[in-house]
């Protein structure tokens, strides 16, 4: 069985002590950093952008998994590649020419991801799945941390896993939003490979231990 991945979302971290938070993740059992870029247009919130990611990249010792919640992501693909981002995920709902966008991300040397909102069917990815390295199944409506997990995510993950198998693709399934110790194992059992956790990690009294517990839960 392939290794299961935990990606703490820095959106829930203490921005006033960002370097300390990055070092915590570096030293922890976490596998990736998850970075949420929000533009205030695609989602009703603005988070952080290139200068902050450039600063994070100087300290992070694990892959940067970057989730663009922005309109017209094609405009910035090269910039994120130059910043040293490892995975770049765009939203299905923001890409009229998804196949072209995926090729452009790969041409910059990054893994190409597609995120789908809770209302978007996994069936819409059937024709591009072999070109997608990572699908982020949103288990909350994107834009904010700390929301409650949407229960139909389990079925979406199972359906997506079937599509990946049928098409003989190597795509990883990543879950983002409301992930905690109560739903982590069930998500893995339904076919998830990567779990993003923001509030559950950074709002806990001991984030390092919380990451360790999550890893044990899904091992
Ligand atoms: O993309 C998003 C929110 O839009 C997520 O990455 C959140 O940052 C996850 O936070 P929690 O739900 O785990 O607090």
TrEMBL record:
Which residues does the annotation say bind a divalent metal cation?
Answer: 34, 36, 67, 176
One GO molecular function term of this record is: D-ribulose-phosphate 3-epimerase activity
Does Isomerase show up as a keyword for this record?
A: yes
Q: Name its co-factor(s).
A: Mn(2+); Fe(2+); a divalent metal cation; Zn(2+)
Its UniProt entry gives the catalysed reaction(s) as:
D-ribulose 5-phosphate = D-xylulose 5-phosphate
Write down how the cofactor binds this protein.
Binds 1 divalent metal cation per subunit.
Q: What InterPro entries would the database entry show? A: Aldolase_TIM, Ribul_P_3_epim, Ribul_P_3_epim-like, RibuloseP-bd_barrel
Supply the alphabetized keyword list.
Answer: Carbohydrate metabolism, Isomerase, Metal-binding
EC numbers for this chain: 5.1.3.1
Keyword Isomerase in record: yes
Pathway assigned to this chain's UniProt record: Carbohydrate degradation
- Where along this sequence does the record place binding of substrate? 9, 67, 143-146, 176-178, 198-199
UniProt lists the family membership as follows: Belongs to the ribulose-phosphate 3-epimerase family.
Role this protein plays = Catalyzes the reversible epimerization of D-ribulose 5-phosphate to D-xylulose 5-phosphate.
What is the protein name for this chain?
Ribulose-phosphate 3-epimerase
What organism is recorded for this protein?
Flagellimonas abyssi
Q: Which gene encodes it?
A: rpe
